[in-house]
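Notes from the 1:1 (GR / supervisor)

We went over the backlog. Supervisor wanted to see one worked example end to end before approving the batch request, so GR pasted a single chain during the call. The sequence is below; no edits were made to it. Supervisor asked that the structure be written out right there so they could see what the output format looks like.
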Amino acid sequence: MCRSIKTLREPYVPEVTHADVEAAALQYVRKVSGFRAPAAHNAAAFDAAVAAVAEATATLLAQLEVRGGSRRPAAGN
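Structure output shown during the call:
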């Protein structure tokens, strides 16, 4: 669906920053909503969606285990 979102899990990215997670969340919300930037009356919903997707992404990355590897630290740590 979002071909331009880079893969954030190892072995592709050794360290994932909070900025990486936020950028991926923003790209996802833009793709789903169809808006590059929301109108003023939709800004709060757009920003809340980006925050929720970023939080879910950080949780996912913190819980993923790669075979032969160890658990990765939470994003942004």
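Supervisor's comment: The helical segments are 18-33, 43-63.
Batch request approved.
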